[in-house]
Specification:
Blueprint: H1 12-26, E1 30-31, H2 32-43, H3 48-59, E2 63-68, E3 71-76, H4 78-85, H5 93-104, H6 109-112, E4 115-122, E5 128-136, E6 139-148, H7 151-163, H8 165-177
Antiparallel strand pairs: 1-3, 2-3, 4-5, 5-6
Helix pairs in contact: 1-3, 1-4, 1-5, 2-5, 7-8
């Protein structure tokens, strides 16, 4: 396997933390081919070490997997999330950022099993507050409120979120982070 200090992946443990980092940020099952594609985008290197790490992480209960029509789908487990969150900072910050940009393309509320809720309230000033919420089993993913002048506009925002939660979620993430990748 190519060792490159630029990427900060110098040990099998680094590789495992990197895999857990990717899967934790994606938040739902993703096929092995896509996982390897994200790795290749960020390391210019595919080796058997990644497949070995996926297997070892699955065997240790840090990853869950299922096989459908010959393709393995991986997802981080609660155990993997708990252990790996303590180790993420061991990865090179620039490498984490570049990798996160690749993983962003795969972030989806609907695939993650998140529940959404939207409601409109009249404020004391006579305007209308629209609150948009998305939660998964770990808690809040997003909670945002907008205040607009008309009930019709508030209801339109609510309907848009209810019909296209992924698009609104990605738009909020783009606005908050400035990462154009959220819009792709």
């Amino acid at each position: 396997m190519k060792r490159n200090k630029k990427f900060g992946l110098n040990t099998i443990t680094d590789l495992k933390v990197f895999l857990l980092f990717l899967l934790d940020n994606i938040r739902y099952p993703i096929d092995k081919t896509t996982v390897l594609s994200i790795i290749e985008e960020n390391t210019d290197d595919i080796s058997l070490d990644y497949e070995q790490c996926l297997g070892e992480l699955s065997d240790s209960g840090h990853l869950l997997y299922d096989e459908v029509e010959g393709e393995k789908y991986y997802m981080i487990s609660d155990k993997g999330r708990a252990v790996a969150s303590e180790l993420y900072d061991n990865l090179d910050a620039g490498f984490r950022e570049r990798s996160l940009r690749s993983a962003i393309k795969h972030v989806s509320l609907s695939k993650s099993g998140a529940s959404i809720k939207a409601y409109v309230e009249r404020t004391e000033s006579g305007r209308f507050r629209v609150t948009l919420e998305a939660n998964d089993r770990y808690g809040d993913l997003m909670r945002t409120s907008l205040t607009v002048n008309s009930l019709a506009e508030a209801e339109q925002i609510k309907r848009n979120f209810e019909s296209k939660p992924d698009g609104v979620y990605r738009g909020v993430l783009f606005s908050a982070t400035g990462r154009i990748e959220y819009l792709s």
